[in-house]
Amino acid sequence: MSHIHDQAMNNVYQQVLQRLLSFFSRAERTALQLLIQRLAVAAGGMDRIGNYKVLVVQCGSRDSCYTLALLRAAQLTIATRAPTTFKLRLATLRLNGMSQLALDNIHRSYNALFIYDDPRVDVLMVDNREVLAFDHRAPVSRAARESNRMNLLLIGHRGVVDGPLELWDDSFLATGEFHGQIARWNNGVDALVSGDSPRQQKRFIEGLKRAAAKAGLASSNRHEAADYGGLFMLLDEFGSDCYQAFYEGYGQEAWRPAEQFEACRRTTYIDIHDVLVSQLEERWPILTEFLGYQPDELAAHLGENQYVSVAVSAHLRGLQSCFVQGSTYLAGVTHYLQRALVMMRRNQLSERLCERADGAYGNPYKLAGQRALIADEAYQSLGLNEAQWVCLLFAPFIGQGASLERFLRQCHPGMLVALPELHRAMQGHPVAEQILQWIVDVSGLPVSLVGKLYRMEPLVQEATSMSPPHSPVSEPEQASDEASMTGERSAGR
What we know:
The protein is of the alpha/beta class. It contains 22 helices and 6 strands. Residues 463-493 are annotated as: Disordered.
């Protein structure tokens, strides 16, 4: 019965492969052969390919889905030529704000490639540091939402003095830690495979180092190469818990199931960006007709972060302009949207797409008029209300509350009389319950963690200002150059 079942499944896999290959252009067929050769060399020869396992991170982006299709074609092609083929580990990190469209894109890709029932493929997701079977219908757990929300705040509050607005650095740190852990889960993997461009890799490594510095993690100068080749050595320097400086003595979930994590990691990196077909027009048949990928084109080119909508990004610039810079909410929204639209045209995107963007976001007055709705979206997706976002923009607790008085004068003048008591509370002294509750309500954090921030100094060293890929303030690049590895951008867009 088992032999009959295996034979039937092999027939199904061959049918999937043949249908997939029918969508390949000549260039993609050449890329497939180059990919197979590269994997065989990395494995030590085709006779050892059956013991080789590669990790591919799935975030629902256009490029991550396309890379998976090519790797699946390589896996199934080798299976027709050799007794065994390499194994795949597909893993998705669940963070607040990840769109259902991104999860659905992953699910449709898995279905089209007949992945769920293939024992040669691990299909995983990580929710609040727990490794689970991937389920596109499962919402982020309540514990994960709370943990992700606090991590965003803790990293966000510890910025560079007079530095750029970088509220999303936690996504770099969370994604880096995720890679380090999922690579050593359940006997580990031999290689991380990614199609990210050298530019994307550089951005991620720089962002990871910057976020790690905010979390009190130091790295040596041994990892000068700004690519994924040094990623795992860099993560080893950071240790297994990238948030320890914040949560020490407070408690945070450990990675689990703990007994399934290897003590040592053997993972290397295989870069396949140079073999991928770069022309977007050649990718669309596989993406849309075969995988069922559904893009959100405007968000892909206007959004600054994978987990944050264009409207929320503009909203936060409006708050920054209004409360921090002494201008108006409308001025911040206008500047952000105008710059985003300019960058779209500078990147030489299609006129059709630019016209759609102008129609959707060309009128800042319309977006500014929806401030309450967007504030609710920011709360529903990321768990922070407007008062907590404004507090984050000021970062008033760092450096023994260096900016606390300015924050109170600007946003909470009625609390100026309680300034000494606020300092006492963050120093750990007993104060009135109303003072403690005000700190919790305004910061969105427990008083003990606000006290941790209070005892930390802001980063004053020179930091590389880096916008996330496809940020409106990033320099021009080809529209097909899309992030797939990081928590930076592009999930479902």
